[in-house]
Amino acid sequence: MPLLRHSPRRLGLLGLCAATAFVASCDTTVGFRPNELLWGFVSLSAVKNPAGETRTAPTGTFFRGEVSSLPSAAVRPDTCFPSRTYVPPTNSFAGVAFLDAGASISLNIGGTTTEVPRISGGGITKYNLAAGTTVAYRPGDSIVVRVPGANGGYPTTEVRGKTAEAFTMQPVTPPASGYMQLRWTAASDNNSALVLSLQYAPAGGGSTVSREILCAFADDGVDSIPVAKYQEWSAASNVTRQVVANRLRTVLQNVNGGAIQFISTYQLPTPTP
Fold first, then answer.
1. Residues with Cβ < 8 Å from 235, sequence gap 6 or more?
2. Distance between CA atoms of residues 86 and 26, nearest Å
3. Are the beta carbons of 143 and 56 closer than 8 angstroms?
């Protein structure tokens, strides 16, 4: 039976380069020739409650369709890209055929298992906790994702990885001239990336952020940005200027007929639930 055709999609992560989301359209992605496969994405992003406890609301999405790029912690160009229009991150999966992957998927994080149930409605199938529900975890813990699979849907699979560690970052302050220095807590290994979004609101456009400069670095705790790359963000005429940093970890694994990807992020400033 031939597969239905859908238009190629870039899944809206992260937003990968701006906050936390799924699959991004920035140059920290692995490119793919458009094709239709079975895709699974399990995402875990850190939030902090008012008591300062780190929590998360993991999500899963499984479908048959096309993607044109995937976020990859292995792609670290150590540079910034030209300013572009800032679009708040969203997870958009229009034009794909959603798949059943079982009644729930399980995530074992640091030895504690959380069942994330299937929620279907309006032609969309996702795996989410109940609205407003989060679970406590320790960033940097190991994780095992188990997908039971379903007949005629997504296949049974298991993915092992590590969640993105918490980190601190020195204030990002543009100098009078020359390179802008960056310092942050280095990752524990070379399997993560540091993605920086320099966000700003130019003069004449109101105070809402409308532009950003995206940067991606090896997660070794130190780097710098030349003035030509950051000068639009640092302009004194800007109404608003802010920095959002993300530590990114990804695991991409083949399954029968496609692939599954686990995506974990830790953001500064860390969002609230």
1. 200, 202, 203
2. 12
3. no
